[in-house]
Design a protein that fits this description.
about 230 residues; alpha+beta; five-stranded mixed β-sheet; two-stranded antiparallel sheet
Length: about 230
Amino acid sequence: MDDRQYLDLIGFVTHELKGILSSVVLNVYNLQNGLLGDLNPAQKKTLKSISRNLDYLTSTVRNFLNFSRIEKDELFLNKIRCSLKSDIVDVSIDSYSQAAADQNIKIINKVSPLIELEADSGLLQIAFNNLLSNAIKYGKEGSEIIASSQVNKDEVIVEIFNQGDPIDQTDIDKLFKKFSRLHYRGTEKIKGTGIGLYITKEIIDKHHGLIWVEPKKEGNSFKFKLKVI
């Protein structure tokens, strides 16, 4: 099987899984909200666990779909005028609020509502989702994640800071490469495919932006820079 056939197979399988997952997620949502009858505490706990795993699987499927598009050079931008905060950051934080709450992590949103971009809001949301998801997974229980923005002339720097173990300087170059995962003490059981940050970088690159990480004394800051209107 050549590379093209391999990528086509990835795209086909993940596309089929996406449809099946949508149906399963909807049914779990209906159960959790009592639309099919009352649940006892044990059932609620089990559904909560199922829901978390489905969230991870859904995110993985999306990433592999985008990975296939990137590798086949089929990741095209559909640029529109959009708000950084309301169209991208707010939506992402809302999607991951439960995952953060499960780890007793507080997300603080300091992104300015005044910043507008000419960008593909859907793809940027995927990029922000990946950064926020990582911040939650590798953040300390009971800590904070801070999303913020800083405008300098015609550029904005978006920062996602989480309190956790600082990334070693020798590992920084590995972060945005395909299938690269870092393993630190206490993170061995964290699930991941190693393509989320690679996809995020590709999306930022497509927007002619820049992405990097700055390890801090008590955590890490992932930052990306884009042009503003």
